[in-house]
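[09:14] KT: can someone run the structure on this one? pasting the chain below
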Amino acid sequence: MPKIKAVEKLTITFLVDNSIEWMTKLPPGFILEVPLHLTHPDVPIDALTGVPFVDLENYCCGAHGFSALIETEVEGEESRLTLFDTGPDSRSIIRNVQALRIPVERIERIVLSHWHADHSGGMLALLRHRAASVLSTAAAAPPCVVDLHPDRPLARGIAPVSAGGRVVGRLPDDPHFAALEAAGARVETHAVGHAVAGGAVWVSGEIPRVTHFEGGLPSGVRWVEREGEATGKWVPEEDVMDERYAAIDVLGKGLVIFSSCSHAGIVNVVKDAINTFARPVYMIIGGLHLAGTELVERIPPTVDFLASKMRPSPTYVLPMHCTGFAAKVALEDALGEGCVPAGVGHRIIVEGSAEAEKRLFAATYSQ
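[09:31] RB: done, structure tokens below
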């Protein structure tokens, strides 16, 4: 069984997501974007009234994609910054990093969940921004590691069932390895699970498909070119097998799971994490890929599993990115305040302790 270090403190900052949410009441440890700005030491102050400006020109923007900054703190060690995905484009990630004043020179690893441009599109811009920050601050920062699945596609496209399987568009190119290295990265490829961030963050390998209702991405196609054939062609690719999730174990809380698009199915993701670590799940974060008419039938069994069949059930589910409105409504109906309307600009602080771990152990094994 793989091992990861249990962390005493986990801080998550959402740098890219489809949604912006400023006003909803959030659970303890969750911080909305606006207070992060208004309480910052250099917030602009209005000379007329003497109160801070809500400086809308420099707040986060939403975009169809996902990116989460993961800060892990293990007792006796310096905290580590890992970036999980980089959003869809070169502009949103940089705007939001600047808005939230992220110390990008401290990001030591970028983990790409899978080869889709709404997750890889900001990677080159982020690397260049980091390199410029290192130069300007004279920080002694090693090259940023970019952690990738080795099976980079030539192209991926969209062929909706509603369009009769016709390819209606292709996604932009994912970054090439050479371009990443030219931007200052050190590229690593991993097809199997491995621990990063000093052993505190688990990056999965291939996610086993074990549920009967999670059938992948119906509209997924991939461009392939085979030796001896005059031209390439689009082939169906419902199973996005290069997809990976990330997991962190917080003392006294359990697993925090990041699944930024869940093409494998969030139930498959959760089952694999539990089987891998034999730990309860505290929080599930990311895109659950239940949006659109093609996937609506998966909503009831997915919600039923998360709300009723998981034992112990997760404390929080944060349905983001590609989850879809209908699935969010169903999750809130089933989970109540356990379904958190997270969005870009939010920060979450999860603190654990050895004493809490003892209580969790006793509660887990008494069930």
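[09:33] KT: thanks! The chain has nine helices and 18 strands.
[09:34] RB: yep, looked fine to me
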